[in-house]
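Here is the promised in-class demo. Please do not try to memorize the tokens; focus on the logic of going from shape to residues.
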């Protein structure tokens, strides 16, 4: 088996009576782009800081490149870190601060000049070499911070919401650049974010955290299409979550409440409370007669997300539902109108 860039084993971090990270285990293969995703306070930044050596874990192990580093200082971990505010030195020229890491490693001056020129050219900021950070745009400062972090060629680059300060129009360009840089360099990126678009656009592996633990990890497609728990289904945009009593229905199917769905993995106990989810794009207005799942609903509002039109509807029990439709299609119903929604049994996902 290829050596892992990072392995975390049963990591725990407490602050007094508060547990910030609880039994977190994670494996990162060589050159992976991993996104730690979750709401504020879920433990993702504390996990990153433990990897970086900025926090001392109470329990567990951290291995980088197969080497035990749990109690090593940051400069002995073969990592670099990029912060949200970029933390550029205001008094230094761009060339000087990009080469600062190599200076700290006491590399020869001729080697530093050569590497700085190469990295500035690679990030297309060679013309900024003698300028100071205050004279740069947000996108330029982001490139400088990334160049400074990567010039030492670390095994892992840790990024704590690195584009959170950028305006929305610039984020898409920067995300594309970062993904290309990561693929060219072969360096593993560990990226902390609460933004789902960032995580699903960039990550080879998405790790969803909640209340200091990992709820689910997998590819973006797995997280989006097969949420494992009701939290993941509710947290990831575009899911509708239903709850009810579980009953077996035979032929590999079950019911949760009145709705039919595949029985899934180890089933809940007969009669136990259970939940399932259905993607908003898989709901249909006025479904075919042979679709087993349907319910009446009333349209509360219509929202637009680029190419997607989202209907927010209310079911007979008062619960809100989402149905997504391509914006190029004609609108089906208007606000205040009644309709019938439905979905196929195979499109529902039973949660653990």
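The designed amino acids, position by position:
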């Amino acid at each position: 088996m290829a050596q892992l860039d990072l392995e975390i084993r049963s990591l725990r971090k407490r602050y007094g009576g508060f547990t910030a990270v609880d039994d977190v285990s994670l494996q990162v293969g060589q050159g992976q782009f991993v996104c730690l995703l979750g709401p504020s306070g879920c433990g993702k930044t504390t996990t990153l800081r433990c990897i970086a050596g900025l926090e001392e874990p109470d329990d567990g192990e951290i291995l980088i490149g197969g080497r035990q580093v749990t109690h090593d200082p940051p400069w002995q971990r073969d990592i670099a870190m990029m912060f949200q505010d970029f933390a550029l030195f205001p008094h230094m020229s761009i060339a000087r601060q990009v080469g600062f890491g190599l200076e700290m490693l006491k590399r020869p001056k001729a080697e530093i000049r050569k590497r700085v020129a190469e990295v500035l050219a690679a990030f297309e900021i060679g013309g900024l070499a003698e300028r100071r950070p205050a004279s740069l745009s947000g996108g330029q400062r982001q490139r400088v911070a990334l160049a400074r972090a990567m010039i030492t060629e670390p095994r892992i680059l840790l990024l704590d919401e690195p584009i959170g300060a950028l305006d929305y129009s610039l984020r898409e360009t920067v995300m594309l650049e970062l993904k290309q840089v990561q693929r060219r360099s072969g360096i593993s990126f560990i990226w902390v974010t609460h933004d789902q678009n960032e995580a699903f656009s960039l990550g080879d592996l998405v790790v969803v955290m909640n209340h200091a633990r990992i709820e689910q990890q997998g590819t973006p497609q797995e997280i989006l299409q097969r949420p494992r728990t009701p939290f993941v289904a509710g947290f990831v945009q575009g899911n509708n979550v239903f709850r009810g009593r579980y009953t077996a229905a035979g032929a590999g199917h079950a019911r949760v409440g009145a709705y039919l769905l595949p029985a899934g993995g180890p089933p809940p106990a007969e009669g136990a409370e259970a939940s399932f989810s259905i993607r908003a794009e898989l709901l249909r207005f006025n479904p075919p007669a042979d679709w087993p799942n349907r319910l009446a609903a009333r349209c509360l509002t219509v929202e637009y997300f680029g190419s997607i039109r989202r209907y927010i509807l209310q079911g007979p029990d008062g619960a809100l539902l989402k149905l997504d439709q391509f914006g190029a299609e004609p609108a089906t119903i208007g606000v205040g109108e009644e309709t019938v929604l439905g979905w196929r049994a195979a499109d529902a996902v039973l949660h653990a």
